[in-house]
């Protein structure tokens, strides 16, 4: 295995080799190949999947977490509070001594310590690949701490949030509070105030990112469990992907909006929006890379675009079906998807809205008041690019029997009826 071996080839070797084989091979490698080996080993190790679990005191988080781990063998349940308590009680732990020192001084335990203990618990959970992290993040500082200390080393599926009113939570806590010091009316009100002041804004943060999975916790336990189980099933399922293509003005965005409004398992991801968002993120290494490619007049490598699409899929808040709008734009994109994603997602096909240049031009000019890119000259250039690059993509899917063509020349409601039937047919096969 010389320096010309790719990381993908080395990763395949890792999969097929024994530990002794790997040790022997590593001795004979040059520096470049050894670096590739380390990279491939890291890439071949699956990242843990994390679902944060939040809700007011008495919202039923613990009950539902117990049901999840009873019914889904891959999942482990980690309570941030339990991690801290266990470490404090461990006489041999330096972190326990440090935690007690912070608490004695009336200081908040640094988030890095809490996260270190959570990661330790994840590592110790033999055979588990997915984790419910209960009672974390409790505040915005916890969210920032997670990003700084864990970041891309775990895939965050979202925040599972059990909603319930203060009256309902108070009733539940008082009902269970026989002999429990912290379940009296005065303490309950303080706990609820802390929850509203600190934890509710965290839920709002995840909502803004499209990662909040809200469940009505006011119902009977079995009803709540029905919704919870579906969330976990969606997270565990191999994602289903439907590419969405069509000329400029063909109505892709309108129909995608209708799909996500009417089918709750679906999310809409625009490849263009992913790239724009990453370019504007000052902390993103990919954003800097994308800007450099654009400045040099080069095409952004398809692997970067796909990485951002996958990141958006993971951040979709428990969705299992995805409309990927404006991708693949050319044959290189199709090849890139196969090489970078392959069997990790099920492609349901390519939904293609057909409309002629005359109709698309008329639509774009009609909406183009104040929009620089909706003038006749720009429209003609865009259509030429579309025909030259995107049309051959639809031919690829047509040859594979995976092209789903819809007449986009009709009225919006008529197009929607055809679109709705396509989604219903895909849902029926899930």
List the helices and strands and how they pair.
Blueprint: H1 7-16, H2 19-27, H3 31-44, E1 49-55, H4 61-71, E2 75-79, H5 80-88, H6 94-104, H7 111-124, E3 130-134, H8 140-149, E4 155-163, H9 166-176, H10 185-208, E5 212-216, H11 221-236, E6 240-246, H12 252-262, E7 266-270, H13 271-279, H14 285-295, H15 302-314, E8 321-325, H16 331-340, E9 346-354, H17 357-367, H18 376-399, E10 403-407, H19 412-428
Parallel strand pairs: 1-3, 1-4, 2-3, 4-5, 6-8, 6-9, 7-8, 9-10
Helix pairs in contact: 1-3, 4-11, 5-6, 5-7, 7-8, 9-10, 12-19, 13-14, 13-15, 15-16, 17-18
What does this protein structure show overall?
With 430 residues, the protein is α/β, with parallel strands linked by helices. It has 2 domains: 49-234, Rossmann fold; 239-428, Rossmann fold. 57% of the residues lie in helices and 14% in strands. It contains 19 helices and 10 strands. The chain has a 5-stranded parallel sheet with strand order 2-3-1-4-5, with helices on both faces. Strands 7-8-6-9-10 form a 5-stranded parallel sheet, sandwiched between helices. The radius of gyration is 25 Å and the shape is globular. The chain starts with 6 loop residues before the first helix and ends with a helix. Residues 1-16 and 40-44 have low confidence and may be disordered.
The largest sheet has its strands arranged as 2-3-1-4-5
Task: Report the sheet with the most strands, covering strand number, pairing sense and barrel closure.
Answer: 5 strands, parallel
Percentage of helical residues?
55-70%
How many alpha or pi helices?
Answer: 19
- What is the assembly state of the chains in this entry? single chain
CATH fourth-tier homologous superfamily of the largest domain: P-loop containing nucleotide triphosphate hydrolases
Number of domains: 2
Estimate the strand proportion: 5-15%
Which stretches of 5+ consecutive residues score pLDDT under 50? 1-16, 40-44
Mean pLDDT: 83
Shape: globular
Distance between the termini: 42 Å
Question: What is the CATH-assigned architecture of the largest domain?
Answer: 3-Layer(aba) Sandwich
């Amino acid at each position: 295995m010389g320096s010309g071996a790719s990381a993908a080839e080395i990763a395949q070797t890792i999969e097929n080799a024994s530990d002794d084989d790997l040790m022997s091979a590593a001795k004979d490698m040059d520096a470049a190949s050894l670096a590739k080996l380390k990279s491939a080993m890291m890439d071949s190790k699956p990242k843990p999947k994390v679902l944060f679990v939040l809700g007011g005191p008495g919202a039923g988080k613990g009950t539902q977490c117990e049901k999840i781990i009873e019914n889904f063998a891959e999942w482990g349940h980690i309570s941030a509070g339990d991690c801290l308590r266990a470490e404090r009680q461990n006489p041999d732990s330096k972190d326990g001594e440090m935690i007690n020192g912070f608490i004695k001084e009336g200081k908040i335990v640094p988030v890095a310590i809490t996260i270190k203990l959570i990661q330790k618990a994840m590592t110790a959970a033999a055979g588990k690949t997915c984790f419910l992290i209960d009672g974390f993040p409790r505040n915005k500082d916890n969210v920032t701490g997670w990003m700084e200390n864990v970041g891309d080393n775990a895939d965050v599926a979202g925040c599972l949030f059990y909603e319930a009113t203060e009256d309902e939570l108070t009733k539940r806590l008082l009902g269970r509070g026989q002999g429990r010091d912290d379940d009296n009316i005065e303490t309950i009100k303080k706990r609820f105030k802390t929850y509203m002041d600190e934890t509710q804004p965290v839920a709002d943060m995840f909502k803004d990112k499209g990662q909040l999975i809200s469940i009505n916790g006011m119902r009977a336990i079995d009803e709540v469990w029905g919704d919870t189980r579906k969330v976990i099933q969606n997270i565990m399922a191999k994602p289903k992907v439907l590419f969405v293509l069509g000329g400029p003005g063909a109505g892709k965005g309108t129909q995608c909006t209708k799909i996500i409004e009417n089918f709750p398992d679906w999310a809409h991801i625009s490849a263009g929006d992913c790239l724009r968002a990453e370019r504007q993120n000052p902390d993103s290494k990919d954003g800097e890379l994308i800007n450099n490619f654009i400045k040099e007049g080069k095409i952004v490598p398809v692997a970067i675009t796909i990485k951002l699409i996958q990141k958006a899929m993971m951040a979709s808040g428990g969705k299992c079906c995805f409309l990927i709008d404006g991708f693949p734009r050319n044959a290189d994109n199709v090849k890139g998807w196969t090489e970078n994603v392959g069997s990790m997602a099920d492609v349901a096909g390519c939904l293609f809205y057909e409309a002629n240049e005359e109709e698309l031009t008329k639509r774009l000019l009609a909406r183009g008041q104040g929009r620089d890119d909706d003038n006749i000259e720009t429209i003609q250039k865009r259509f030429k690019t579309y025909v030259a690059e995107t049309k051959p993509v639809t031919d690829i899917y047509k040859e594979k029997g995976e092209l789903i063509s819809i007449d986009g020349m009709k009225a919006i409601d008529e197009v929607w009826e055809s679109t709705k039937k396509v989604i219903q047919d895909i849902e029926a096969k899930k």
